[in-house]
Design goal:
Length: 156
């Protein structure tokens, strides 16, 4: 091991839904320290999702969307004797969740012509239904890991 482990930051659960994952998502959406704006965007997106899916428990929808978007495998570059191999590795639960949150946020940000609340809501609903750009990204990641399965013995 080259360096020490990074200290795990303790994220307080968000006040409205009492969920640490939602609090983490609010922090990811936040730009320039404007947490109130980020909360308004995330909770607004949740309201839109609730309206469109006629679902009472928004947390259930959000967690299912996250679970659908979470990658199970990813590739990590490893240098072996002057060549760099893409070695497939399994993704830990927490890392998978944060990757899924990041993908949802990024794909929503890259859409144009709508308010962020609307774009976020669309990405969450698409992930919940198992479609959309987040799911495509997950499948591409899995495909890459699958095609590099031959290099799995370089894992250490």
């Amino acid at each position: 091991m080259r360096r020490r482990k990074a200290q795990e930051k303790v994220v307080l659960a968000d006040p409205k839904l009492n969920s640490k994952v939602v609090a983490k998502f609010v922090n990811m959406v936040m730009l320039e320290g404007k947490k109130a704006t980020a909360e308004k965007i995330v909770y607004g997106a949740f309201e839109i999702v609730k309206r469109n899916l006629n679902e009472q428990d928004i947390l259930k929808v959000f967690y299912k969307a996250l679970d659908n978007a979470r990658p199970r495998l990813e590739v990590k570059p490893r240098r072996v004797g002057g060549a760099t191999y893409q070695v497939p590795i399994e993704v830990r639960q927490e890392r998978g969740t944060s990757i899924a949150l990041r993908w949802i946020r990024d794909f929503a940000q890259n859409k144009k012509g709508k308010p962020m609340e609307q774009k976020l809501a669309e990405e969450i609903m698409a992930a919940y239904k198992g479609e959309g750009s987040v799911i495509k990204k997950r499948d591409d990641t899995h495909k890459m890991a699958e095609s590099n399965k031959a290099f799995a013995h370089f894992r250490w």
